[in-house]
Amino acid sequence: MKNRKRKTARVIPGFGLSLGITITMLGLIVIIPLCSLVIFSSQLSFQSFISTVTRPRVLCSYAVSFQTAFVAALIDAVMGIILAWVLVRYRFPGKEIMNGIIELPFALPTAVAGIALTHLTTTNGWVGSIFHRFGIRIAYTRVGITVALVFIGIPFVVRAVLEKIDIQYEEAAHVLGANSRQTIFKVIFPEILPALISGFTMSFARGLGEYGSVVFIAGNTPYETEIAPLMIMSELQEYDYASATSIALVMLLTAFMILFVNAVLQSRTSKIVSGIA
Amino acid sequence: MNIRKDSGSLKWILIGICAVFLTVMLILPLVYVLITAFEKGIHVFGTAVSDEYAVKAIFLTLKVTVITLIFNTIFGIFAAWCITRFQFRGKKVISTLIDLPLTVSPIIAGLIYVLTFGRQSALYPFLKSVGINIIFAVPGIVLATIFVTFPFVSREIIPVLTAQGTDEEEAAALMGAGGFTIFREITFPHIKWALLYGIVLCSARAMGEFGAVSVLSGHLRGKTNTMPLYIELLYQGYDFTGAFAVSAILVLMAVVILILRSKLEKKGKKEVD
Fold first, then answer.
1. Which top CATH class is A46-274?
2. Which of B210, B214, B252 is the best residue to mutate to test the A interface, defined by the most A CB atoms within 10 Å of its own CB?
3. What is the ipTM, given to two decimal places?
4. CA-CA distances (angstroms) from residue B251 to A118, B25, B100?
5. What are the boundaries of each domain within chain A?
6. A45-80: per-residue pLDDT in tens?
């Protein structure tokens, strides 16, 4: 097997050229900047790193980012399942449009989404005025940040789950005599679970780092609605690169941890589905 | 044949939930931008978008997008070819690094370029002696945009090439075809819709990138302001009509992209069938 693979490498031409171009471009765009991040962080003293990232204002910004991104990813997961379910199972007028519009958050610039959502949800906006009557304020609160992150994250879940809902399994379960509850919890749910987890993870990770749509709707009150990327941005504007890098390192580590947990869960859940474990 | 037992009411409740969610979350913002942009008449819209600085922002955005597209398309094709056609050590590392920009916050993407080329960098004295400005100038904006859209093209092509396998290319190579001929005659027809789709996605993100560009741009009106940054500037100056007018151009672009996307998806599916 290994031998055959080696041969393949020789048969098709262009290995050296394509690898060379790939590594050169990758080096210029990703590897060199990442190395400079590593070099710069290694020059930071541990003491100042700790004192920067434990400043109350910074800690609050982490909490705001984490909380809003988590809630938004949960909402996206629930709505994502319903949307994917409806799109796969049902025929109805307007389905084509629904299918197309879901990817709007990928196509619409985040700053545009941000200002539009802000204007809609202020206390005298179209949507905000309705909620204001019940005493709920959306724009310039954490609720507003969550709304913006739900907008950004929804296509990640739908895209991930959409391909996994397959009517065949359901029909097989039904033919074999399963009732509808059994079908949902023993057939459909385990099948879409890995995709759902990775969709949730993607939208959570994206939400943690999102900046464009959030800065407009957040109001950016210190300790209340300041997100972590905004803290990095304000340190950068004061040319305090050491603080900016410290705050960024914590966020990067968090993002990598989330991805790692996802990878572990993926291998576990897919084992359950394929029955190896 | 219909053994799905969902009652009609459940079906319509679920469809209703989706319709309300999508209308409020996605369609309403679109409509709101267009209405606000045109509410004071087409004339006001016209003046806002033909403003000297608006036109400069539009041209800068187009320039950045075109450079990004050329770079990422070339990279995407070569990277996909390299990853799917050959077995070699370190392949996993390369594909992880390619996807890395997707998980990095745009602000952090901006930050790492500031650290690479900024005043405290080891490269800075050299760059200054040669007279190249990267940070707070157009090259920085281009680099940041390339970074955030880096995997967009290759990610669309790689699954198609993996699914297709290497048999056809191997056969062609054994019969004596050169690399470029193999690519043009065999590989390209398979990937052309995926490639186009990747390019469409890449251009959407490139035109709209805000966070990373915002870090690296000097926010100089008419010099380093792209469309999203110009919108922010107008918005913060309480010129809402102007901000929404420029936004309307980006909204229309988003709608075109969505239509193109569904066309390309259909073509791709037909080809597979």
1. mainly alpha
2. B210
3. 0.89
4. 16, 15, 28
5. 1-43, 46-274
6. 999 999 999 999 999 999 999 999 999 999 999 999
